[in-house]
UniProtKB/TrEMBL annotation:
Region described as Disordered: spans on this chain: 83-110
Name of the protein in question: Peptidoglycan DD-metalloendopeptidase family protein
Stated family: Belongs to the E.coli NlpD/Haemophilus LppB family.
PROSITE patterns xref list: LYSM, PROKAR_LIPOPROTEIN
Residue span(s) of domain LysM: 33-77
Keyword Signal: yes
Acetylation as UniProt keyword: no
Organism field: Paraburkholderia edwinii
Length: 243
């Protein structure tokens, strides 16, 4: 029979992988004109994808070393209000010229993740993880899930049955975070909680209270809820019942 310590050691690689996936895919949403650095990004790539000059992004963000950017770092990729951006006009003209000549023009922004064929994803039936108002919906780029706002202490429940694979606050931008693995394909994440009521390795049932809504590592009380299929974020609204 496995001891608690042995079970934790056995789960450690899985927990590390899950946390790495979340970190690589971004945390709290960023506003228009900003971009969160992801794994494999370079400043040149970010500048190209946002039709800006590298020198402009360096200047807007006061970067001491343009060759040293970190995963999760938020960069301004559009000129501050009232600032003219000659580079934007120049690159836009270049993109238009390329388009007229048949060459591919640079996109406005790089996709945050590789595309997921949701049509091939096996169905999963979820319940709403908390009462409240949906104040931000999934868009796959700046928002990796949905944000549900209510009062502090509002119960947070497991959207589906599974096993808690992470319970802690070690991932910047998520505050007190729970991650539940439901099967080989799906996991859900619950961020910014005031209190966590379950532990790593614990089995939970759909609808079971697992946390209390809070504002840890956030500027308002809300639950940030994510659904991941094969490690990639997908719109949880597709699997939630109508409200």
């Amino acid at each position: 029979m496995l001891t608690t310590k042995m079970r934790r050691l056995a789960c450690a690689p899985l927990v590390a992988a899950v946390v790495a996936v979340l970190a690589a895919c971004g945390s709290a949403p960023v506003g228009p004109g900003f971009y969160r650095v992801e794994r494999g990004d370079t400043l040149t790539k970010i500048a190209r994808d946002n039709r800006q000059a590298v020198s402009s992004i360096v200047r807007w963000n006061n970067l001491p070393n343009p060759d040293s950017i970190e995963v999760g770092q938020v960069l301004r990729v559009a000129p501050p209000a009232g600032t003219a951006s000659a580079a934007t006009s120049a690159t836009t003209s270049t993109a238009s010229a390329r388009s007229r000549s048949g060459a591919a023009a640079a996109p406005n922004s790089a996709p945050a993740e590789a595309p997921v064929n949701v049509a091939n994803a096996p169905p999963i039936s979820l319940v709403w993880p908390a009462a409240g108002t949906v104040v931000r919906r999934f868009d796959g780029k700046n928002s990796k899930g949905i944000d549900i706002a209510d009062t502090a202490g509002t119960p947070v429940v497991a959207a589906a049955s599974g096993t808690v694979v992470y319970a802690g606050n070690g991932l910047r931008g998520y505050g007190n975070l729970l991650i539940i693995k439901h099967n080989a394909d799906y996991l859900t994440a619950y961020a910014h909680n005031r209190a966590l009521l379950v532990k790593e390795g614990q089995a939970v049932q759909q609808g079971q209270k697992i946390a209390e809504m809070g504002d840890t590592d956030n500027d308002r009380v809300m639950l940030h809820f994510e659904l991941r299929y094969d490690g990639r974020s997908i719109d949880p609204s597709r699997s939630l019942p109508p409200r």
